[in-house]
């Protein structure tokens, strides 16, 4: 802004001087130098300690020497009874008695270090109350004429000065510090001029530390400058959908600037409803219109009858601008370097790269970037069409393209699990991603030095499916097209991922991908049966709009299942619609008690690069919210739950007879096994560490020590004829039988692929209550692990509790082949299973077998029951 102000002032001053030259021939003796030609030895010629000064790259006269001392430059000019001096001085230090500047307004000789007669403005003195001060010098003696505001230049300063001498010998000193737009008077005094003066100049007194820290520019000495130049509009900026800001070449008159009828906008919008001249920047006016601008439309703004501070009227002008409202995904988060160490071949710095997909520049000024718990506001920065911007700390990647420094010294990107959100001035979400280490797809790249790159910028909604680690040899592509750039369209229909019940009237629907927030606001899109109806309030959940909160006027009844239907158009963020009339069960949940939800299948010895899983089953008549449950281990020494991991991070309903698989990697489980219920998987953030061969699995309350179910497993429970148990799950035979009954578990069948995640177990057997005290079923079973009648069930029903049982299996020749139970305490009713193996773990021969069940109690009552079964096999 300073450079713009300086250039504008320079152009205006040159124009005014041209007018003065045309009007007054004596102006030939005026002094003017802006050092724009890079030279101070001609036009005009400055003399003195020339070797101690230079014109720098900013076209400023700068002291450029070493050591301590005094240096000056002076230039001839014509002094008159009415004079004005204008110049700019910057001191990059706090002035003192050893470090100060003098601006000789008038001197009678060229050497400003020698005794002379004249007038000078002193910039700097001893103490902390430095003020500018005007002196008359006679020989070596000086007399103060006037002093300015105390403390004005006590520190480093950058000020434009205007000094006027009137015909009555009155002096006035005006200042315009950097960052201000108008001159204000700072000092005045009277002094009678005596003598002839022919030189103007600068004198610097300095120590070695400040020998390059004096700057001078925009010098003028001559008649009073009267501003006759009309103001001009230098730029128009769109602030919002109904606001513009106009920047003028100079401060404008407040009354005319704030007259609404002086502005008219085409497109049927008309005059603004308010116009406000900025108090801090009086060359800026903000216009607010009643109607909003339409994106992509070019408008014409007519401006007339404004004046500057001096009363010069603007020449009527017509300006054009095109309003572009960047919407969702017009600017996208395109690349993320979250873990830069150890570096591959890029600087070891974090960055987020933004990409402008529009054919127009996008002004990011005032936009907000949220990353994790931190956030930052963009400074004035414009992102060019189809270009990139790196967000870094300390502009660390400036060599790679456009940078903006937003990261603070105390904030950084997490290596995984961070949400990055870009919002516009109105707080609307333009793009949001939540990246994880899984996005790298290659394990070694997640260890550091590689960026995550977006594959297809036209598919910004698909997160994990549209991101992958960079394949560039340097580890990333900051400031240029991504190395993984390819077409990767999203053509899948969004679906419901989960349902959360907040209370009897409020629910949250979570989708499996980002949704269009506007379609989520459609109340006709949702309907609950059972006389509940359509929602009365809807609130999409930012920043990714995967979820929407619904409020209904009628209450859900506890543990009553309802159907939620998606009845109208709901789309993902790219326009793919949810399948019409999709339905999901919903209901107000109860509290899970012991054995309401049971452990139904476990896999702890996964295939190579596979994933462990635990399957659970809701055997109750309650709707259970898994948000209240955890998966854990059990310490037998302390009888305490350990390593508890929450099942889900938000409400997730499990209905009666539902099967759900708990795992850290559902996709690996689905890849290894057939499943008819792909929606029956819950991705846990972490999993308790279960041993392959033995351990204890606990389903517990998340915030208490309630044990919902507990299973002590062992690899010995597997079918012993298997060559390997790797990748083979243990299945529960029946969920109504005790969990810790060893005979209630069996290896999943080979025909089922050795596991049945999220659906009915291959070894499931219905629990048949016997009419007689003992019953065996099925009559013929084949223990070949094919999933069909692989086990024999021995059910019993006694008249009273307190019995123990011994169960033995004999072949048709009366030879004992298996001790199934020996003095085992049993209940009054239950079932045990035989896997068709003998006591040495070998499969018995095909044939007829006798099951002898002996039950007895402490009172000496003994009862014996014999039942026959047939062990079959393939012919």
How many strands appear in the DSSP assignment?
61
Residue runs with pLDDT of under 50 for 5 or more positions: 1-12, 14-28
Question: What is the distance, rounded to the nearest whole angstrom, between the alpha carbons of the first and last residues?
Answer: 94 Å
Rg calc: 43 Å
Q: What is the count of helical runs?
A: 4
Write down the overall mean pLDDT.
90
The description of the largest β-sheet is: 8 strands, antiparallel
Quaternary organisation: single chain
Fraction of residues in helix: under 10%
What's the shape?
elongated
Question: Helix- and strand-based class?
Answer: mainly beta
- How much β-strand is present in the residues? 35-45%
Write the layout of secondary structure elements.
Blueprint: H1 2-23, E1 31-33, E2 47-48, E3 53-55, E4 61-63, E5 69-76, E6 83-91, E7 100-107, E8 116-123, E9 132-139, E10 141-147, E11 157-165, E12 170-177, E13 184-190, E14 199-206, E15 214-222, E16 233-240, E17 243-248, H2 254-257, E18 263-265, E19 274-277, E20 284-288, E21 298-303, E22 317-322, E23 331-337, E24 351-356, E25 362-363, E26 368-371, E27 374-377, E28 382-383, E29 388-392, E30 403-405, E31 418-423, E32 429-435, E33 452-454, E34 467-469, E35 496-501, E36 506-511, H3 517-520, E37 526-528, E38 537-541, E39 547-551, E40 562-566, E41 582-586, E42 597-603, E43 613-618, E44 624-625, E45 629-635, E46 640-646, E47 653-654, E48 659-663, H4 666-672, E49 681-683, E50 694-701, E51 707-714, E52 730-732, E53 745-747, E54 774-777, E55 780-781, E56 792-797, E57 804-811, E58 816-825, E59 829-834, E60 847-856, E61 862-871
Parallel strand pairs: 29-30, 48-49, 55-61
Antiparallel strand pairs: 1-15, 2-5, 3-4, 4-15, 5-14, 6-11, 6-15, 7-8, 7-14, 8-9, 9-10, 11-12, 12-13, 16-17, 17-20, 18-21, 19-20, 21-22, 23-24, 23-33, 24-29, 25-28, 26-27, 26-31, 31-32, 33-34, 35-36, 36-39, 37-40, 38-39, 40-41, 42-43, 42-52, 43-48, 44-47, 45-46, 45-50, 50-51, 52-53, 54-56, ...
